[in-house]
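Structure (tokenized):
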């Protein structure tokens, strides 16, 4: 669960779509981890055969651990488990909660789970978007953030063992929190799967060492001010704050319409900022989001030209400079106009391109030491 590759796997999975007045993009990368354990789901128009849900959309990110079996299963089945609940049509919150609990209970009986062969688990953060509101459910430390009128207006709470309410449940179930982990091992206090932490007799499913119960939030939509919703695993949030990520995405939306490019740049920037985990993001863009405009596009071109000029000057003065030293020199400069929240890390690809162009015989772009 904690093993790393010698060099990161930087291949990306990317997907885009639109419907119900929304546009979305997905990007994920294995990164330094030996296995890709993240999964996702995106359905932008119509959740099922029910006509009443035709103008609803659903998005989710699952951050697996100790294997990818549970995260993949949840990506395939959580939506169906929720909309199949009788409560969902009358009370969305109750339907979502019951869907989580029922899916978790049924997974316990999968052969590889019941035999103990597979001990994997996953966090889950999902969002149902209707014409009037957002229903956001979180179980674990993946996170959803809503950007409204230029800044984070809402964020889910990460379920960590050190939270007083989470620690109290763990202790009541006979466990302990050591080094910020459940029984010194698991770094999240709520998750789907992880059945070895859900065997305390006499206690219900939400009273175990690890709970499958989602925390559910409701937000009214503001069609004028809502800009975008981000769902992402902790591989993103480990290196980007809510404010940083919102600022960075806003700056990218001002220079390009291509959501695939925006989501991909987020993942790349997180890698360059030092994330050592799998990274996944679902970006859902509302009609009120920023759009590209000429001044921002020109400012981006000017920034790239400035960086290219600095790189040429540094390499002209120091022809044998190593790539890592070049980045360090650029980082020490007060370069104006770098993307907010992304900084120099967001321009790493340009720096590598220029370095290879100017020093084609060198092969030390620091691929094994991004952070």
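Design, position by position:
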């Amino acid at each position: 669960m904690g093993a790393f590759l010698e060099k990161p796997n930087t291949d990306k999975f990317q997907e885009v779509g639109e419907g119900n007045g929304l546009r979305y993009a997905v990007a994920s990368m294995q990164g330094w981890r030996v296995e890709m354990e993240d999964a996702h789901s995106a359905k932008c128009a119509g959740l099922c055969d029910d006509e009443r849900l035709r103008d609803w959309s659903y998005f989710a990110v699952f951050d697996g651990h100790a294997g990818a079996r549970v995260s993949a299963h949840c990506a395939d089945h959580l939506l169906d488990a929720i909309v199949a609940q009788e409560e969902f049509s009358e009370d969305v919150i109750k339907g979502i909660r019951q869907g989580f609990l029922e899916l978790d209970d049924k997974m316990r009986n999968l052969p590889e789970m019941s035999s103990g062969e597979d001990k994997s688990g996953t966090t889950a953060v999902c969002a149902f978007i209707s014409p009037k509101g957002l229903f956001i459910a979180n179980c674990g430390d993946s996170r959803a953030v809503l950007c409204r009128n230029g800044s984070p207006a809402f964020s889910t709470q990460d379920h960590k063992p050190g939270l007083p309410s989470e620690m109290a449940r763990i202790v009541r179930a006979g466990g302990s929190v050591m080094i910020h982990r459940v029984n010194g091992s698991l770094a999240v206090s709520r998750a789907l799967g992880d059945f070895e932490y859900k065997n305390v007799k006499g206690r219900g499913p939400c009273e175990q060492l690890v709970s499958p119960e989602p925390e559910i939030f409701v937000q009214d939509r503001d069609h004028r001010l809502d800009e975008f919703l981000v769902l992402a695993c902790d591989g993103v949030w480990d290196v980007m704050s809510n404010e940083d990520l919102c600022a960075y995405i806003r700056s990218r939306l001002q220079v390009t319409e291509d959501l695939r490019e925006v989501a991909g740049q987020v993942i790349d920037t997180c890698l360059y900022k030092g994330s050592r985990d799998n990274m996944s993001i679902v970006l859902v863009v509302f009609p009120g989001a920023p759009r590209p405009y000429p001044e921002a596009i020109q400012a981006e071109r000017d920034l790239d030209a400035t960086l290219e000029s600095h790189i040429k000057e540094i390499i002209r003065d120091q022809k044998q400079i190593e790539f890592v030293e070049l980045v360090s020199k650029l980082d020490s400069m007060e370069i104006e106009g770098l993307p907010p929240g992304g900084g120099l890390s967001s321009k790493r690809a340009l720096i590598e391109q220029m370095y290879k162009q100017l020093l084609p015989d060198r092969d030390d772009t620091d691929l094994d030491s991004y952070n």
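Reviewer-requested clarification: The mean pLDDT is 95. The longest helix spans residues 294-317.
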